[in-house]
Structure formats: C-alpha cells, structure tokens
Amino acid sequence: MQPHHFEVSAIWEGDSNSTGALESPGGLHCHFAVPTEFGGPGGCPSPEEMLLAALASCYVITIAYMAELKKLPLRKQHITVQGVVERDPQTRRLRFTQMHLGLTFSVPSEATETQIQSILKLAYDAKSYCLVSNSLRDEIQFSVETQVEKI
Question: Which residue pairs from 77-84 have beta carbons closer than 8 angstroms and sit at least 24 positions apart in sequence?
Fold first, then answer.
C-alpha cells in the first residue's frame, strides 16, 4: 500500500490567550485555544479536545467499516471519549495518561443475540484497527522544519 499524506495548517497570532485557526484541504476550518483548565480563554476547541475528537471519529468509522464487512445490522453509534492529562513527575511534561471510550450501539429490533454480541466485540477489536489508536500507541517519526519571516 502506498503511503497516504494528510496536512493541516495552523495560524496563531498573539500570546497564549489568543485563538488560532486551523484548516486543511479536506475541509477542516475551525478555531482553537488553550483550554480553560490551563488558564486559556476557552470558547473553542483545545488541542486536547481535538485529539480526543480524532480518536472518537476514527473509532466509530473503524467500527462502521468492520460492521459493514461482517454484514452486521449496526444503525447508529454514539461514542464519548474522556481523557486524563497529568504531569509526569520525572520529566515534568504534560501528557494524556488515560483515555476511556464509552460506546452505545443502536440496532434494529430484529437483530439477533449473535449479531449483537458480534457488534459489541467490534468495540474492542477496533482498538487494533483504528489508525488514531494505533498512532497513539506506537512511536511516530517526528520532524520539525523552521524559517523566519520578517514583517
């Protein structure tokens, strides 16, 4: 399989109480800010919420795809993702230490018990197939390129 490339750009002007703007060729257009939990202004999504949103959206897409392949009668999913951010006592770095996913599945009234059990199993199987959950678990090559523009 050939690599797939994705890109998002962010613009931030001002101090940490400002807001930034995100956009992507795929249609992402939103503002972001430091969360109120860290002394920011709030009022729009934070990077922490967007990471949880990436996991939530990838997870339900993965489950939908797996249900489709198995021809399971899954009609609707509702997911809530909760994350805990803590400071590592050794490095003093903030990071997510826990993520909890809560899923509710809607199926037609004629769904069999076997189908329902298969759908419930997808919630656990998706962890191994969701691109975001895999990326959170595995090490990623990370590079930075810089330039300065005088204005």
Answer: 77/103, 77/104, 77/105, 77/106, 78/103, 78/104, 78/106, 79/103, 79/104, 80/56, 81/52, 81/53, 81/55, 81/56, 82/52, 83/48, 83/51, 83/52
